[in-house]
Design brief:
The protein is α/β, with parallel strands linked by helices and about 250 residues long. It is about 30% helix and about 25% strand.
């Protein structure tokens, strides 16, 4: 049975959509262990439109951090890339040096179920006529360039980009519905739509890894319990939840 807690000790977390599944599992473990409830909000506004052209944030006026700042009620934020919380520190939304890395995600190629264009590599994505999706926001922003730059394939891949997705969920949907032939994503996405997409792993020397991180917000109201949860997310017990969902976790001490 969990410990008794002060009824006001509710840890409120704002999470990127694609990071929510392991977070929810870890939060239940934490609640059982400490008795401190955790409330999770998942981003919904800045990534509500599937394509960048349709999104209200297409001009840069609406984003993950702005959604957090305007709500002003959360203690912690969880992002799928460290650069997002770098931006948060600079903008005064995330407290400086109050961050922990929970785990890492590995780059991969996403294709529709059945892989109709027989895409097996990044080089295959560079073939003329292949329709590619990339995300222009959040954890996938710039990933295609990171991968293709080391292979010298930026120009042929860029020429094949036909869909600018507004986040993880949008890029998975574009692949699953056959709007594109392939996309850049993470290996963890196989757990989100296992029947509608296939994940093609890249050779190790081509892989890019980005961190899933948690940061204390500048307007946190429950900094004490929130810091306990941050520490818990970096524990082996919590990291197992992420490993089960496909994250790469740091070696246990």
């Amino acid at each position: 049975m969990g410990q008794q807690h002060n009824g006001n000790e509710v840890v409120r977390i704002f999470s990127a959509r694609a990071c929510a599944a392991p977070l929810e599992k870890a939060a239940k473990l934490f609640e059982h262990k400490t008795g401190i409830p955790v409330e999770i909000s998942v981003c919904s506004r800045h990534c509500a439109k599937p394509t960048a052209e349709e999104a209200t944030g297409a001009t840069g006026g609406d984003d993950f951090l702005l959604e957090i700042a305007e709500a002003g009620i959360h203690d912690l934020a969880i992002a799928g890339a460290e650069y997002l919380l770098d931006d948060g520190e600079v903008r005064g939304i995330v407290q400086r040096r109050k961050r922990r890395t929970i785990g890492y995600r590995t780059s991969a190629i996403l294709v529709p179920a059945g892989n109709p264009k027989n895409i097996r590599s990044v080089e295959d994505m560079a073939r003329p006529g292949v329709r590619i999706a990339v995300s222009v926001i959040d954890c996938l922003k710039g990933l295609w360039e990171d991968v293709c730059g080391r292979l010298g394939l930026i120009e042929p891949i860029r020429n094949n980009i036909s869909y600018y997705a507004n986040g993880c969920v949008a890029i998975i949907e574009a692949v699953a519905t056959g709007q594109v032939d392939a996309a850049f994503g993470w290996t963890t996405f196989r757990h989100m739509e296992p029947s509608r997409i296939e994940v093609i792993e890249m050779p190790k020397h081509q892989q890019v890894m980005r961190g899933t991180c948690v940061g204390m917000l500048s307007f946190a109201r429950q900094s004490g319990p929130a810091e306990r949860f941050m520490d818990f997310l970096a524990s082996p017990e919590s990291r197992r939840c992420y490993k089960e969902c496909g994250w790469v976790v740091p070696d246990e001490p």
